Amino acid sequence: MTTDHQHDVLIIGSGAAGLSLALHLGGHLKIALISKRELEETNTYYAQGGISVVLDEADSIASHVKDTLNAGVGLCNEKIVQLVVEHGPMNIDWLLKGGVNFTRDDTSTSSSGYHLTREGGHSHRRVIHAADATGKEVETTLQEQVLAQPNIDVFEHHIAIDLITSERSEEKRQKHCYGAYILDHENNQVETFRARFVVLATGGASKVYQYTSNPDVATGDGIAMAWRAGCRVANMEFIQFHPTCLYHPDAKSFLISEAVRGEGGQLKLPDGSRFMHRFDERGELAPRDIVARAIDHEMKRIGADCLYLDISHKSADFIQEHFPTIYHRCRDFGIDITQQPIPVVPAAHYTCGGIMADEHARTDVAGLYVIGESAYTGLHGANRMASNSLLECLVFANLAAQDIHALDAETPEPPVLSPWDESRVTEPDEEVVVSHNWDELRHFMWDYVGIVRSNKRLMRACRRTDLLRREIVEYYSNFRVSIDLLELRNLVDVADMIIRSAQSRRESRGLHYTIDFPYLDDRVQKKPTILIPDNYSPF
Fold first, then answer.
1. Where are the alpha helices (DSSP H) in 189-312?
2. Do 460 and 502 form a contact (C-beta atoms < 8 A)?
3. Under DSSP, is residue 276 helix (H, G, I), strand (E, B) or coil?
4. C-alpha dihedral (93, 98, 102, 104), degrees to nearest 10
5. DSSP code string of 438-501
6. CB neighbours (10 Å) of residue 313?
7. What are phi and psi of 217, to 5 degrees?
8. Of residues 529, 534, 532, 466, the one with CA closest to residue 239
């Protein structure tokens, strides 16, 4: 027997995007906020670097826009870039008024009063941050405010299974989303959530790769659910690999912020020599795709397990003040970054593509919105510029809230929804199938659809994905759902989207690099890659 919940707004995801939206919506709407695990277990919480925003008089909106367009290698939507950058300062002001404690620097030349760092792709210092734990500061501050609001019901340890939509008919030309089936995986019970507005804020899909900087929750749930519901997705071939994750057998998914390079950190080979100047005149401050490929190339060339990032030429006081989280975490593993370089490797980090959304965060299905890393808005293009991601979360959370407010009075209550039916399923007999398929998927995605691709590798990945999907669909159809099964089901859908998108882009651009087509081709390829599901209903 399922439990039926009724709210005005259902927000699936509890990172910066979801929390900000819940707060922007105000107190008159009844809101359900879904968190797959604990409330703070999100990509936001682990984000170190900061938020890119124009705060210094020496900087300009035009410069931030130009840098973002350059990083996106011709695939950004310039209108969206302008919109997001212009809305940056007001959203930072909102965070400051909400109590977010960004690092101040009254002695610097910055007119903002805050310490602004510079990261790859930026022509100015414009990254506001809270030491090297910006995401944690933002997440915990917003979380505290959300928990204090009586109109917001928080559901931890709940994972969405699928969206509930109407079918297109003669009377209704567009599909409509009325809610979602959601598994309470602590009590092993599927619940029905009804809402007049549904918002996906579920983050990216980097867990589809063997090595990732992301927490375990980043399994592409929102992207896969929206695809199954009839939404188009775009630019899924553009997976950003962060150049520098800590290389240590016990250091799971620990990122070394790009700000380390922004403050003078040097990438080195095992013999201590620098190499980035051979790949880009900007050296360590080149965009992430260039740095990640350079590291990957050098590791393969010399057969190294890792390379090194060295900031030890800076004073110990400087390092501990600017990078306390990184300093203490590395010390936990016996690495003193004030005295020695940090062993690093690239890892899957950010999903630049996602569910297609307009400037109001609306998707192809009425009543369904998407914000944050799950969305494709056109901001990032073929490569996300550092620290633009939290900015996008904040801006589109605000824009979605404005649109929901505008439509509130004219949006009726959803119809009564059918309960989840598990009358014809049984308890799983061999759960090893799920764990085996999970490992196989992430291994071949890393080997065949990673930093450097080829037609042959993509074909191999395609064949394996087809086989895995058939096995997973059969398993899903016959056995009671679990969180591992649901995440695997979503990951295989996302893997298929990444592979198909990569196969269709017959050039190298931004984050997508293939040895078969190593050059840009602006004649035919200077446009986003759009995948259209069979049940897409244009309007």
1. 221-229, 259-262, 288-302
2. no
3. helix
4. 70
5. HHHHHHHHHHHSSSSB-HHHHHHHHHHHHHHHHHHHHHHHHB---HHHHHHHHHHHHHHHHHHH
6. 10
7. -75, -10
8. 529
Sequence-distant (6+) residues with CB within 8 A of 225 are: 160, 161, 162, 163, 180, 200, 490
Q: What sign for the dihedral angle of Cα 28, 33, 38, 39?
A: negative
The helix (run of H) or strand (run of E) holding residue 435 is helix 432-448
The Cα 238–Cα 514 span in angstroms is 12
First to last CA, the chain: 36
Q: In what order do the strands lie in the sheet with 239-246?
A: 239-246, 342-351, 307-310, 266-268
Separation between Cα atoms, residue 503 and residue 498, nearest integer Å: 9
For the record, the structure tokens of 341 come out as 């370089």
Residues constituting the chain: 539
- Residue 296: CB partners within 8 Å, gap ≥ 6? 241, 346, 451, 452
d(CA 378, CA 74): 11
Cβ contacts of residue 163 below 8 Å, gap of 6+? 177, 179, 180, 198, 225, 226, 228, 229, 365, 368
Residues noted as catalytic: 288
- What does pTM read for this prediction? 0.92
Give start and end residues of each alpha helix (H) in 47-160. 61-71, 78-86, 88-97, 134-147
Per the structure block, which two tokens stand in for 384? 């996300």
Q: Do residues 27 and 214 lie in contact, with contact meaning Cβ atoms separated by under 8 Å?
A: no
pLDDT in tens, the chain (539 residues): 567 999 999 999 999 999 999 999 999 999 999 999 999 899 999 888 899 999 999 999 999 999 999 999 999 999 999 999 999 999 999 999 999 999 998 766 667 799 999 887 899 999 999 998 999 999 999 999 999 999 999 999 999 999 999 975 445 568 999 999 999 999 999 999 999 999 999 999 999 998 898 989 999 999 999 999 999 999 999 999 989 999 998 887 788 988 899 899 999 999 999 999 999 999 998 888 889 999 988 998 999 999 999 999 999 999 999 999 999 999 999 999 999 999 999 999 999 999 999 999 999 999 999 999 999 999 999 999 989 999 999 999 999 999 999 999 999 999 999 999 887 777 776 677 788 898 999 999 998 999 999 999 999 999 999 999 999 998 888 888 999 999 999 999 999 999 999 999 999 999 999 999 999 998 877 899 999 999 998 76
Does residue 395 sit in helix, strand or coil? helix
DSSP 8-state class, residue 372: G
Residue 182: CA atoms inside 13 Å, Cβ hemisphere, count? 29
Distance (Å, whole) CA 32 – CA 192: 12
Phi, psi values for residue 273, rounded to 5°: -85, 145
Secondary structure letter of residue 293 according to DSSP: H
Structure tokens at 5: 């919940």
Structure-block tokens of residue 512: 């997508």
